[in-house]
Target: Glycosyltransferase family 4 protein
Amino acid sequence: MKILLITQNFYPEIGSGANRFKNLYTQLSKNHEVTVLTTKPTYPNAKMYKDDKYWNEPLINNSTDIMRLNMRSNKQGKTMASRMLYYLELSYKVRTYIRKYQHEYDAVYVTTPNIFLPWATFFFQKKLKSTKRILEVRDLWPDSVRDIEKINIDKFYPTLKFMEKMMYRKADRIVINNEGFRAHIAKMAPLKSQLFIPNAFTENEVGFRQPPEDFKVIYTGNIGFAQSYDQLIQVAHMLEERQIIFNVIGYGVNAHKFNHYIKKHNFKYVHTHEEKSRSECLDMIRHHSIQLSLLKESDVFLNVLPGKIIDGIGCGIPVVTNLGGYTNSMINTYKVGFAKEKATAKEIIEAIEKIRDNEQLEASYRENSRTLLDEKFLWENNIEKLEKFLES
Model:
């Protein structure tokens, strides 16, 4: 098959979205002709990608299959107007490319977020029988935007919900990275086939270690609008009081704020770190005892499957989270850590202390992670399911 992948974020950018599409490209390219339509790396900032450590995939670096659109607007603009201008420019360029070249592909595979890319790919475009439209849903937009307190879209919400429904219906098939999305999408597009393909590890990335001598907790990834910043601060204070080492590798809109807070209050046991490459981040996770994940208390955010949860499982360390839904059920069913929907900071700390004080419990969580990883979170296994789904 000739496949076009359309994504805003792609290698070498950090973050689960970019890493996911790097793996989709790498795995699908083994048996198919795959092209990627994307942008230049700028997340969370463009300057960091001047460092060669992020460009650690020679085959992708030398590939002629990666098309990076030149953008005049700034992806990381500080105002909503500047970001909207960026999205509109990106949509126009993607729409123009699809209109000219979609006939050359057997499948066009586009992802949310951002939502403008599927709209540009599906809406007011000629539908070709020879080209399948594959929509990947990684975010329930516009509900997720509505739950971000800083963005008020109430006036446009009914219109946006209608466009969300039409987006699902115009897709030929839908891929989801979270089982919690299935029922929501089925209500709007009951006849559409859905396939669950979570973020995952490659076999080369898998590596379990013995527990560290010093008990340590780690938080990696975005500290943005969807994450519970206030609860992260509370947990940091409580870990500091208990003299438990807490390392945070954060990026996103609130990362600088968090780093400044930790330095201002002279924490001794809480340490912040600059952005790291994925391999550096995974290596650091393996030297910890617990992977922490905290999201805002919203039905939308509490029902996602964050990349940091999968990273903890793939590194073989227990995960502790306030999530509900599918992720909660998975963690507790497979016994790979602690998950309680809307857990308080106190409950999070109690769970951490319980694991710290029970070596046998921690060992069982680590061993169970191997089973869960093999069953659900290996790209080499999951890509076969995706290929059959695309070809059916």
Q: What stands out?
A: The chain has a mean pLDDT of 93. The two ends are 12 Å apart (CA to CA). The CA atoms of residues 77 and 83 lie 5 Å apart. DSSP finds 15 helices and 13 strands in the chain.
